[in-house]
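$ ./design --mode recover --in tokens.txt
reading tokens...
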């Protein structure tokens, strides 16, 4: 696949710098309010923990109009001389460059990876631009396992509010763990450390023009690292405080891109997960401790109403995607939603079967994948609503136990997935009908 053409700014900057041992990448789009703090933390982390190495902080920006790039270049380290007074260090550089290609986080990462390779970096870390809880220690925790312990991929492990990260908790973590056998708690966390050889592997891939260019990038990176046998670990970073959203708000684009990437990778790595056995925890670095977290407001009523409304509009599509027994469970769930919403509950097994059925439908119906993923959103909201109602009075440790139970349910259903993966219940004629419906909805028919 042809490489992304480097913007002139980026090419000139790398020619000027010539080399860097460590690259820290920060993707951004209109993050002027928070990115200055992230840059200062990254810069201070390099100076404090890796003073013997040459480092560069790269902001890969998607066309911000709020002064994000100016905020990066003007970020100052007023107190760094106090913290680093007795530490000899090599100065880190800062770059802020626009990326080209499909707008999205993945395209920003691709530019960062190319620059890291061109600079001959030994390790690369990426961090989100909306973080409020990042500290210089995060840089150490993301990079030290790569630089000094031979790991290729460092995933974040942090405490999050029980309603922050619902896509992770309800789909991505349980499914990825069940498929590939390694318990990486935050597979789409946003902050990662990587070795040079893994960065090179990412750049060799030919699927950069898919949803990988957008929100699919995190799970794509994690899955490749696990499925292809790279050395993977986790680092405890404390609290993740960022611009969290109500899971009942419009997260449909993120859900579709992330889950679509998971389902595509399931096809590529079928030979890996078909042989998977018991799961094992990924090694965890860092000192775990309890932290305070920002509240996350959730509108349960809106999620349930979206589910009920969509059940009428999407019933035909669900009938094509779901196994008859799973569909019967969804029909029963509709009755619960109409009755007493406060007692609304979706069993773990039903939810796991929904996800696995959708994975199978996605595989067998390549021309209808867009509509299949869109129709999953309402079922996901029903699951989140059920989870919120069930865990309202629970503390963090109890909620984590509930997530663990869901993960074990996904693992127990691996034989179910293997049975249905190549023997879906939808007929080809039914898929023709789904495609016709997709065309009428999108105005192409």
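writing sequence...
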């Amino acid at each position: 696949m042809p490489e992304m053409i480097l913007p002139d700014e980026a090419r000139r900057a790398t020619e000027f710098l010539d080399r860097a041992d460590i690259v820290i990448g920060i993707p951004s789009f209109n993050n002027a309010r928070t990115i200055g703090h992230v840059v200062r933390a990254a810069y201070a982390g390099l100076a404090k923990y890796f003073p013997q190495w040459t480092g560069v902080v790269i902001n890969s920006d998607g066309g911000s109009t709020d002064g994000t790039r100016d905020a990066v270049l003007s970020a100052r380290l007023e107190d760094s001389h106090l913290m680093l007074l007795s530490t000899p260090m090599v100065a880190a550089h800062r770059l802020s460059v626009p990326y080209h290609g499909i707008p999205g986080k993945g395209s920003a990462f691709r530019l960062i990876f190319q620059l890291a390779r061109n600079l001959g970096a030994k390790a690369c870390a990426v961090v989100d631009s909306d973080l409020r809880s990042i500290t210089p220690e995060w840089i150490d925790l993301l990079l030290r396992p790569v630089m000094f312990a031979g790991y290729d991929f460092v995933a974040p492990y942090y405490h999050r509010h029980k309603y922050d990260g619902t896509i992770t908790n309800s789909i991505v973590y349980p499914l990825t763990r069940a498929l590939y056998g390694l318990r990486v708690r935050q597979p789409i966390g946003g902050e990662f450390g990587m070795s040079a050889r893994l960065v090179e592997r990412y750049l060799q891939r030919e699927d950069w023009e898919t949803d990988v260019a957008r929100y699919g990038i995190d799970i794509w990176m994690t899955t490749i690292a696990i499925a292809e046998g790279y050395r993977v670990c986790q680092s405890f970073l404390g609290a993740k405080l960022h611009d969290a959203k109500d899971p009942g708000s419009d997260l449909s684009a993120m859900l579709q891109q992330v889950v679509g990437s998971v389902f595509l990778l399931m096809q590529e790595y079928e030979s890996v997960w078909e042989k998977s056995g018991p799961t094992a925890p990924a090694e965890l670095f860092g000192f775990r401790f309890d932290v305070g977290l920002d509240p996350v407001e959730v509108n349960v009523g809106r999620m349930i109403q979206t589910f009920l409304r969509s059940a009428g509009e999407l019933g035909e599509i669900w009938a094509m995607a779901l196994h008859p027994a799973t569909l019967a469970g969804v029909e029963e769930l509709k009755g619960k939603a109409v009755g007493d919403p406060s007692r609304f509950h979706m069993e773990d097994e039903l939810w796991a079967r929904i996800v696995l059925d959708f994975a199978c439908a996605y595989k067998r119906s390549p021309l209808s994948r867009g509509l299949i993923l869109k129709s999953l959103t309402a079922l996901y909201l029903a699951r989140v609503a059920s989870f919120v109602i069930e865990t309202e009075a629970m503390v963090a440790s109890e909620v984590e136990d509930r997530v663990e139970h869901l993960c074990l349910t996904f693992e127990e259903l691996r034989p179910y997935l293997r049975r249905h993966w190549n023997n879906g219940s939808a007929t080809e004629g039914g898929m023709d009908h789904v495609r016709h419906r997709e065309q009428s909805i999108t105005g192409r028919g």
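exit 0
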